[in-house]
Amino acid sequence: MQLSSRFTIAVHVFACIEIFKNQYKITSDFLASSINVNPVIIRKLLGQLKEADLIVVQRGSGGANLAKSAEQITLLDIYNAVECVDHGNLFHFHENPNQNCPVGKNIHSALDGQLFRIQSAMENEMKRITIAEIINDIKLKIRENDPSEDSI
Amino acid sequence: MQLSSRFTIAVHVFACIEIFKNQYKITSDFLASSINVNPVIIRKLLGQLKEADLIVVQRGSGGANLAKSAEQITLLDIYNAVECVDHGNLFHFHENPNQNCPVGKNIHSALDGQLFRIQSAMENEMKRITIAEIINDIKLKIRENDPSEDSI
DNA sequence: TTTCGTTGTAACTATTGATTTTACAACAAA
DNA sequence: TTTGTTGTAAAATCAATAGTTACAACGAAA
């Protein structure tokens, strides 16, 4: 099972905010058109990112901006903000193992530590990558593929 | 979004096979009762594990056994066998970013490398853990909590 | 103070995938 | 040929994501 697309959509949102902030007002319609999803999906996502203090959204007049510099925002921050993982656990344990079976009774506690190690390995890697790096990569690709986009 | 419970159920299956193989015939009903799910769920899961050459299942007479030693089976082997991840990708990309937007056009290729690094970190950690270790941990817990289970 | 574009949110639908359940043919050994 | 299993199909249920419409609340600017 794959993780939801909210995470990659959120990264896309950050990239648009940073890259277009001097040219356009970053509304949910603007973002929705770049990402190609319904504006309401974006507004809900922006709500989660705002809740996590990663962005600021103007009511009324409209527009989203980063709440801190792109160097200070990691992929883990974004992941934690939008991926609703049950109690922070990536792995889903089957609910009711038979407590009368020695294995059923002990599997959970025996496995928990190892699953935590695996999840931590993933999260530590996410923590190392900032959206500033991602945005930089995107800008490089744009200059490479579309030198005409001189404003970026 | 969490991964499916098939993975932890599969680990539970391996633990039962190894721990009870000298006492009981390991049928899908036996496993289903320890795990507390429907036997058909187990039979489908056993099918995936068999397909990946991790276990052997006797038709007719019944019973499952490991296809190789527990030291040779890693959590990654099990994960790959049962977690149907699209093209091996943990992360789900939103389908149709706007190709007329410089960000929409380049986000995918710019992000792919980083997502691969994250996923690899997780998979490398999984590769380091064998089910022999897990089974050992479970046996320790059993002796700790139920010294009466002398047969284990 | 009215208008305008926008956000926040509710309500509903659709879709996807996991999970459960019943049923039964195929199978192998006793 | 009986018995206990596995393999598998089909259908039902459930949960989460994803998409859509609608509209009140909001803030700035006319």
Per-chain topology:
The structure is a homodimer of 152-residue chains.
Chain A: H1 6-20, H2 28-35, H3 39-51, E1 55-57, E2 64-66, H4 75-82, H5 102-128, H6 131-145
Chain A binds a DNA duplex (30 and 30 nucleotides) through residues 1, 4-6, 25, 27-29, 37-38, 40-41, 43-44, 46-47, 57-63, 84.
Please provide a brief summary of the model.
Chain A has 152 residues and is mainly α. In chain A, 57% of the residues lie in helices and 4% in strands. Chains A and B meet through helix 1, helix 2, helix 5 and helix 6 of A and helix 1, helix 2, helix 5 and helix 6 of B.
CATH class term of the domain at 6-84 and 130-145 in chain A: Mainly Alpha
Q: Which CATH architecture of the domain at 6-84 and 130-145 in chain A would you pick?
A: Orthogonal Bundle
Q: What sort of overall outline of chain A do the alpha carbons produce when their principal axes are compared?
A: elongated
Helix content of chain A: 55-70%
Low-confidence stretches of chain A: none
Question: Your description of this structure?
Answer:
The structure is a homodimer of 152-residue chains. Chain A has 152 residues and is mainly alpha-helical. Chain A has a domain at 6-84 and 130-145: Winged helix-like DNA-binding domain superfamily/Winged helix DNA-binding domain (Arc Repressor Mutant, subunit A, Orthogonal Bundle). A two-stranded antiparallel sheet of chain A has the order 1-2. The model of chain A has no long low-confidence stretch (mean pLDDT 93). Chain A contains six helices and two strands. Helices cover 57% and strands 4% of the residues of chain A. Chain A starts with 5 loop residues before the first helix and ends in a 7-residue tail after the last helix. The longest helix of chain A has 27 residues, at 102-128. In chain A, α1 (6-20) packs across α6 (131-145), α2 (28-35) crosses α3 and α4 crosses α5 (102-128). Chain A binds a DNA duplex (30 and 30 nucleotides) through residues 1, 4-6, 25, 27-29, 37-38, 40-41, 43-44, 46-47, 57-63, 84.
